[in-house]
Amino acid sequence: MQDAKFTPPLFPIGLGSWHIGDDPEAADHNAQTVRFALDHGVNVLDTAEMYGDGASETVVGRGMAGVDRDKVFLISKFYPWHASARDLPRALEGSLRRLNTDYLDLYLLHWPGQVPLAETIKTLQDLQRQGLIKQYGVSNFDAAAMQELFRVPGGSEVQYNEDLYHLGSRGIEYDLLPWQRQHGVRLIAYSPLAHDWQTRQKITGKETLRAVAKAHGATPFQIMLAWAIRDGQTIAIPESTNPDHVATNIAAAKITLTKQDLAALDHAFPGPTQPEALDVL
């Protein structure tokens, strides 16, 4: 295994896996989709013990089989009620077993819970020293939670926060994103194409988005992805079980939006003008 500080160059569009293990009969196909993504440039895979009660981790692990492990940035997440010194090592052991690997590149607290952050961070540091995880971070943390985290010993070593972020959900731009940029914490944007069909239709139905997509010879979804990663620091993790969709998502990384594009999208999808409650799924 590489040194704990080693991080492969990260492709800005990864692969999410929330529902990728829900259908046992589709497990082979979904594992092949994971492998397709890895074979075509994706090197960030995101999963969690919550997804399918571990089934998604199993499918991701199957998709990784035979791939050079050091070239994959593997993320998993643990339940808040597994965040204690007693339960967290066992939760990690289960995830590693299902993923068929001996370490994670990034291990995230899935959302804030009742276990003291100081206890969770200390346990994560212990797991890091053992070589079982390279980095640790959080998910679904708002600005206040991140500030609390940074007051805990070791909390300032967190380099990633995974939150919902897309053209129709920009609330984190008001306070969370500026704070993270100031403190060197990268955003992992989950559901960058929106989660439900109704929201997606509302977003992609906007003429402005369609016009920008047409100008780039792209789809509205590709523009949504290009927008999400526009700062060069954000990693977007759209979920897909369709290799064709994965290929389309990968191609979005090559799209560079102009200042005029961004201004038009800002007008059609205004950013926040006051603090907003964190949007979560």
From TrEMBL:
- Per the UniProt record, the source organism is Schleiferilactobacillus harbinensis DSM 16991
Q: Can you name this protein?
A: NADP-dependent oxidoreductase domain-containing protein
Record's signal peptide: none
Give me the residues that bind substrate, please: H110
According to the entry, every stretch annotated as the NADP-dependent oxidoreductase domain falls at 12-267
Pfam families (UniProt xref): Aldo_ket_red
Which PANTHER family does the UniProt entry name for this protein?
ALDEHYDE REDUCTASE (PTHR43638:SF3), OXIDOREDUCTASE, ALDO/KETO REDUCTASE FAMILY PROTEIN (PTHR43638)
Hey, where's the site called Lowers pKa of active site Tyr on this chain? K77
- What residues form the catalytic site here? Y51 (proton donor)
UniProt xrefs under InterPro entries: AKR (IPR020471), NAD(P)_OxRdtase_dom_sf (IPR036812), NADP_OxRdtase_dom (IPR023210)
What superkingdom does the record give? Bacteria
Q: Please spell out the taxonomic lineage of the organism that makes this protein.
A: Bacteria, Bacillati, Bacillota, Bacilli, Lactobacillales
Gene3D superfamilies attached here? NADP-dependent oxidoreductase domain
Q: Name one GO molecular function term.
A: oxidoreductase activity
